[in-house]
Design a protein that fits this description.
The protein is globular and about 40 Å long. It has one domain. A 7-stranded mixed β-sheet has the order 2-1-3-4-5-6-7, with helices on both faces. Helix content is 38%, strand content 26%. The protein is α/β, with parallel strands linked by helices. It is built from 5 helices and 7 strands.
């Protein structure tokens, strides 16, 4: 990269103000390299996705997550009902696949924005897009778009609408 070459050249060259300037520049350069390294070293968010082997839209949702920077651990399950039950997904919130991030469930075709919001909400057990609404992430087939809501399930068992889509 151009800035890395410039930085190396600056570190090799002593400034007109002697060693003080050279030391100051080196410290600044080192700080810049550390910060840029930390930014590049940021790891993607990891989500476990449990799904049935024969579900195509689940694979599309996984691709959507990966395209948005998530690292997906794909688990093909024989008994999704049992998985949902173990995670506390209420039957009224059910969809075809279930994700788990930081111990919280992500049920169905939930958009990334709400998954990121879930990480900040300690009052929620999980979030869901019930059913399989056309136009939701992983369900973009043709021009059909149905209105849907992203619902959060609170620790007290109450539903909270987090977002509404067309």
């Amino acid at each position: 990269m151009r800035w890395q070459r410039w930085l190396r050249l600056q570190l090799k060259t002593r400034g007109k103000q002697g060693s003080y300037m050279s030391r100051k520049l080196r410290i600044s350069a080192l700080a810049a390299l550390l910060v840029s390294g930390a930014i590049h070293a940021a790891e993607p968010l990891i989500i476990d996705v449990h799904r049935d082997a024969n579900c195509g839209c689940c694979k599309d949702w996984i691709s959507y997550l990966e395209d948005n920077g998530f690292a997906v651990r794909d688990h093909v399950e024989r008994n999704m009902r049992s998985v949902k039950q173990d995670l506390g997904v209420e039957p009224r919130l059910a969809s075809c696949h279930t994700g788990v991030i930081n111990g919280k469930f992500v049920e169905g075709h939930v958009p990334v924005a709400q998954i990121l919001e879930l990480r900040k909400r300690s009052d929620l057990l999980g979030i869901a897009v019930p059913g399989m609404p056309a136009g939701s992430p992983g369900m973009e087939h043709g021009d059909a778009k149905h209105a849907y809501e992203v619902i959060g399930l609170t620790r007290s068992g109450q539903d909270e609408v987090l977002a509404k889509y067309p």
